[in-house]
Design goal:
Order of helices and strands: HHHHEHHE
Oligomer: single chain
Number of strands: 2
Strand order of the largest sheet: 1-2
Structural class: mainly alpha
Helix content: 55-70%
Radius of gyration: 19 Å
Strand content: under 5%
Length: 192
Amino acid sequence: MKYKTFEELPVWQAAVEFALKVFAFTENADFRGLGDTKNQLERAALSISNNIAEGFERGSTKELIAFLYISRGSAGESRSMLRVCEKHARFSDLKFEISDLIGRAVNISKQLHGWLESLKNTEIRGVKYLQKKNANDSNKTKNSKSLIARWSSSALSSVRSWKGARFEPYFIFDDLFSFFATSREIVLTETC
């Protein structure tokens, strides 16, 4: 599957669903007397999908990696706050909801970790380093597609080896060229 927008990414979709469930949880749970805990939990949950989106739109692999780490940190922050709620007597009747939210945060963290590991091993620098070329420049197109094919193969093999994640391995781009390029005429420059 090809992902042209961050909205198509299963990990972004999971993060949005997580944020919505956190909003529902904080609406129903009793956060009186806990300071800014409710708002902090909501901000951390929303930060996950926002940082995935911002990194995706930045146009470079380096920046995407940085934002995915921030996103993963926000998933950890959400999970930590949910663990505190889990141990607080005030939330004893919400154990199931808290456990579900923690599981979702763990799943998102695993997906982000896998994507990060794949990105750290790629030679592709990002869309900022692509330029439009003449359609007849097939050598560069072939070379860039070959590079992307190697990356995709590596990414998919690492995804298949993850244990315990509740997602399908198709979320990694099986044709990264389509992700970084908006047309067949865009190819990697020789400086890549």
